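Structure ticket #2291
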Amino acid sequence: MANYSTVLNQLLHLIPRYNFERIVNSFEADKYVKTLKCWNQFTSLLYAQASGKATLREITQGLEINNTKLYHLGLPTVKRSTLAEANQNRSYEIYEKLFYKTVELCKSVTPKHDFKFKNPLYTFDASTIDLCLSAFPWARFRTAKGAFKLHCLYSNSGNIPEFIRMTDAKVADVTVAKKELRVIPDSIYCFDKAYSCFELWKNIDLQKGYFVSKLKRNIKYKITGQHTETLKKGILSDEIIRVENKKYSKPLRMIRHFDIETGELTVLITNNLRLAPATIAKIYKTRWQIEIFFRWIKQNLKIKSFLGTSKNAVMTQVWVAMIYYLLLAYIKYQSKYGKSLYYLHRIVKEALTARLSLMDLLRVTPSKIQDFKIKEFQHSFW
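Resolution: structure written out below.
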């Protein structure tokens, strides 16, 4: 058997340790800590995400059972109480900053989007994570319901989240976009109708960016001209309009698109006067990629059941989950792995504690991994 470290260890090696230690030192988070340091906490939580462990007991027992395989990680004996205390008291901002460092790593290998234009393309949207109010009183949403919101700027280059903000569920989606969106000149930002806001549009326009948004029915406007004469590919009209707003009266473009596949009529508004109307309609259609992303992380990552009830523990767990998602994306693009991210997640989960190189792992099926694990167990036993 080749002398490889475990798949988990190879995942951890993708995180530059010096970056991690610099972040930890900036918070003095390891000061006076004798046993479970931040790297050990991160290792335990990454193990939980990759292996699908849902409770502190499952994590500590899993690490204990695999102790002979994971000795090279330098993990001390992880106790439930110690891990729970770390999740509750160590600032989640450590892992938030690590997330953005991992975004930079990911962006170095992600492919470009599928459109012919070169403008960076993003989608901004939010999703609600429900919580039990009695267990998470800090997350009060309604009288008998708890929740928080995950706001995300999603890059169509590589389909990765480049920006995430977590807020109370009561915070309006557009409020976060107006406050937090940092516009990159010449980039295109796609929104649902919840983000129909003159202030947001003006901000993007002033910073030399472009927006594509579904138009709310209650927005008043006047048609001032025709933008294109030749209409095809489901485009019913392409007109120049002025919205009736004193703060933002710049001419905009309104496109009516009928999707033959779904039978849906969509009215779009944009400040991009150059791209073909069918391209604008296609840009908005790709917005559903972020819906798929939200559904994927809710179904495959541990962001709906939590290891602790404090706000800090919840935020810590979500940030580590997002880091794990980025690591999977990095492996996929760096290795030019042809199968889906879900399939990659499955084989990583099955082989997490196996001594198998990542490159070899990408060439096997889950059934073959099971055979390998049985042989490895027999080898260790005898």
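Closing remark: Residues 377-382 have pLDDT under 50 and may be disordered.
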